[in-house]
Amino acid sequence: MYGKKVKLRALFILILIISLILTVFLVLKSLEKNVVYFISPSEIKSLSEINKKKIRVGGMVKENSIKIDNKVINFIITDFEDEINVTYSGIVPNLFQENKGVVAEGFLKDRNYFEAEKILAKHDENYMPPNLDKKRKEK
Amino acid sequence: MIFNFIGNYSLLLSLITSLSLLVIILINIKSLDDKLDYKIKNLIFFQFFFVLVSFLSLIILFIISEFSNLTVYNNSHTTKPLFYKISGTWGNHEGSLLLWLLILTFSIFLYFLFAKKRSNNEKFYTIIIQQIIIIGFSIFTIKTSNPFDLINPTPLNGLGLNPILQDPILAVHPPILYLGYVSTSIIFASSLASLMVSKVDNNWAKHIKNWVFFSWIFLTAGILLGSIWAYYELGWGGFWFWDPVENVSLMPWLSLTALIHCILVLEKRDTLKSWSIILSISTFTLSVCGTFLVRSGILNSVHTFANDPDRGLYILIFLFFLIFASIIIFFIYENKLKNTKVAFGILTKESSILMNNWFVMYFLAVILVGTIYPIFLEVISNHKISVGPPFFNKLIIPFLIPFLIFMSIGPNFNWIKNVKFKNKIPLIFFLILNIIIAFLILKNIGEAKLNLTLLLAASIYLFFTTFKDLIKKTKFKNYSQQISHFGFALLILSIVMNAVLSREITTNLKVGEEINFNDNKIKFENIEINDVKNYKKLTAFFTIQENSSNFLFKPEIRIYNQPVIITSEADIKTNIFMDRFLVINLIKEDYEYFNVRYQEKPLMIWIWLSVLLIIFGGLSNLLIKNEK
User: Fold this and answer.
1) Do B585 and A98 touch (CB under 8 A)?
2) In chain B, how many domains are there?
3) Taking a C-beta distance cutoff of 8 angstroms, is the pair B438, B453 a contact?
4) Do residue B391 and residue A94 have CB atoms under 8 angstroms apart?
5) What pTM, to 2 d.p., does this model score?
6) For B508, which of A34, A70, A121 is closest by C-beta distance?
7) Complex ipTM, two decimals?
8) Would the N or C end of chain A have less CB density within 10 A of its end CB?
């Protein structure tokens, strides 16, 4: 009924549409899985349940809270309302210091304990995680 | 003071020149003839000259440390070495915009010199479009980020340049990257102009091809430099982090790479016209988009110089203006394009190029979504998220496999005519052989996953086919393409092997302690503290015992005084097989425990060398005209 050319073109468009839908689906699916949310210590306290998803915690490294041994670095992240204990084994960025802003990526063990996989460097000596600057000034 | 004055007014003069250029062309739009040519040429030269004078004045202000200038005050310091005083000129927001303007005007000047054979209409339309871009950026520079703003009273000393930027590679990285970024404006302007005068044909392709290669070479080199810098200076030992600022440079690169292949089809076969125009538009738009994201302060990184919402808004508006204007022009004139009717079969060069173009577009889309989505989400829902490497790896690697296979086979196809399937059966056998080889290699290392096996097989396959093409003697030899493709194969292979074979250990050590790592013994021998010109230097001494050989590593920590910033200088021992990378960091200022990371990174040097090969391939196309 239809010519060979028309059929070929229809097939081509069909393949194009299918692959497009597949692509969008794939992208959205893996976005859902690989997105990391940013949470502050006080938000952690008010979490209703602790899930196993990777998160980022941001705040300030509390003064005199850094404890080091061969394997791990322990410290406390505070947002001036609540705080959370962080344990980390790995390299810290150059800007990691007490009383400076920090962002840790990892998993929550319970409401007081966070296991970091990565400490992020924000190449800016004045960097503050979002919202924290405001809170600090209020204090 | 005098240089501040010269710089400032020179910048204003260049804006006036742009406006008068625009007016002159628009008045004479009905009869664009050769008489106008001379006038325009002079004006374009003066425009370039004015911006150059302005730029040089800023450099001089930096050299003489004239702190009455706000830009110099914010970014320089008297104790800084001369070299970094000069590079400080473009190491900040205002100066880098001036550099952007300089390259914009330089490109149009260069374009005019090399476009003698193009029709008057096309030439002048190109100039109009380029002038609109120049005027946009001039006003932006003068209004929101004038590098010649003054500060009163004059401070005694400046605030200094972020020490992390005080690095020879990073001093040249911005100009090179900018040459790539900004010269894409010519491709954008010229493609729209030729579309408007219906001259999108193989002649145009031949002409614009040089610009495409020019931009591409510099963009590639710029990305390479940034990547090398990140490798040794940021102290992570990685070379690509899928960081948004890296992504925004990769996106125009991908688009430009697709365009290179398209332009070649257009030149040879006079087809894929609309597609070439779309790629030209998207390349430049992505460049401006990158500037917007990086400069607006939305992305927090070393590239963010100032968080000023006005600046972001201005670039955003300008970006939307460019996108809409170019889309409108495209749709008005698109139907006038006459593609020469050439039906091509599925197993032809055209098809494989088109196919790989789509793959590249897919990669670009993934990166675009991964980069933009977090920003959107934050604006819409106030959730702060980040999209990390797993997202990109998962979506890109599976599609990289067919991409590499197409890239291996594609160049062996002919134009127009299908290849006989029978002739290519050995290629398929060879592919299967490679899958087995890859599987055996990975099995040996203990990482025999399906995805990885196929990826390694595809990259080995590409490596051998491109190598075979490179050494094979044929009548028409396209060295440029073969060198670049071989370089790309080497790059992918090195990256895959590097990812699979890298080993590392991270620990905290006191002076005198030691630790075992595989068969090596790492010992922290000593630490030395010295005062250098503008920083305090902590040099650590490590010995690493590997089998019977001993390596001495001297990583450093530098504590800069102006501004106060700590940086780590990794000690890297490079040979052709692997890099040994040791970096330390201060955790607390009691100098007791140090954060130590030791990495063995196989084939690192080949990653850099292969990119150089890719660039060299492009360069040979630009410089050597051996066609026909």
Assistant:
1) no
2) 4
3) yes
4) no
5) 0.90
6) A70
7) 0.75
8) N
